[in-house]
Amino acid sequence: MTVPCVRVAREAGEETRQALAELDVLDESHDITVEDGWLYVPVADPPAVPETYDVVEFDAPARERQTRPVDLLGYEPSYERLGDIVILDEDDPDRARDIADAVMASDLRAKTVVNRASPIEGELRVREWDVLAGDGTETVHREYGCSFALDIATVYFSPRLATERHRVTEQVRDGERFFDMFAGVGPFAVPAAKRGAEVVGVDLNPAAVAYLRENAERNGVADRVTAIEGDVRDVVAGSSGARASDGVGGTVEEYDGWADRLVMNLPHSAGEFLDTAVALAGDECVLHYYDIQHDSDPFGPGEAAIREAAGEAYEVEVLTRRVVRSYAPHEENVCLDVRLTR
């Protein structure tokens, strides 16, 4: 008997499963199945599945009963998975400990269970964690055919943005010059390089830059990725405070007017770097600008800031206005895709 399934390429399986789990549309009574290079993920509520996914009928086998955290706790706990780390956000330490024990005793694949111990803090955007079970905060996360080593204690990474990163990097053309102004461990930079782009990634966090270099090697694109540790504003200014790695490109001063595509994924603060973005832009450049604004006008402030920074030097064409996710009550995390033409 067939059941509705989301059909995706095998390499996109885990991030698809995570995305569908967040939407609470997974069919837990049938197994995820691989056939002819495709992965079939059973779904219980096909109308609730986003249109970006391909929903088909498939003869997925009924699942044999596995022990889940809910079976041990008597209630469904809330958690997030990043590689083989399970992440909790519990205020009650006793409840957090109970959930951690249930996760480790269940059939869920987990090496470590952590609980958020602080908000994201500082210019390096990291948080503190309570390790409740297991050992260590380093893992390898996979999405859309790429793998990323990272340590959640020293770098920022959000698996919830996998679909958005894929949307952007799918637009990259072979030979394009791609500049990620706040690159982190490389979730934009590495897949862009895999599509044939020449990539420069900059980040203030030395741990993130080290992982960016490792992840470029891990994914076979080290020859197309230049990692720079420092403030991206120094890349244009030619400051000695920014340090370039071995790889594509030369001194940091050479990136003025260089980019065909720019990613500015630093919500709350990206507007402070728009003058730098304009300086980095080539004669024609697509800018992916991320912002967090009140839902009464989520795009207006960002668009106005981009037009002001571009001044008379560039024509500004807004290609896409996209709500990425809800950030907080009445606040939206949005992206503006903008073409700058000199």
TrEMBL record:
Instruction: Give an example GO molecular function.
Output: tRNA methyltransferase activity
Q: Which CDD domains match?
A: AdoMet_MTases (cd02440)
Q: Which PROSITE patterns match?
A: SAM_MT_TRM5_TYW2
A GO CC annotation given for this chain? cytoplasm
Q: Name one Pfam family in it.
A: Trm5_N
What's a GO biological-process term for it?
Answer: tRNA N1-guanine methylation
Q: SAM-dependent methyltransferase TRM5/TYW2-type domain spans which residues?
A: 79-342
The source's domain of life comes to Archaea
Keyword list (alphabetical) reads: Cytoplasm, Methyltransferase, S-adenosyl-L-methionine, Transferase, tRNA processing
What's the protein here called? Answer: Class I SAM-dependent methyltransferase family protein
Q: Which organism is it from?
A: Salinirubellus salinus
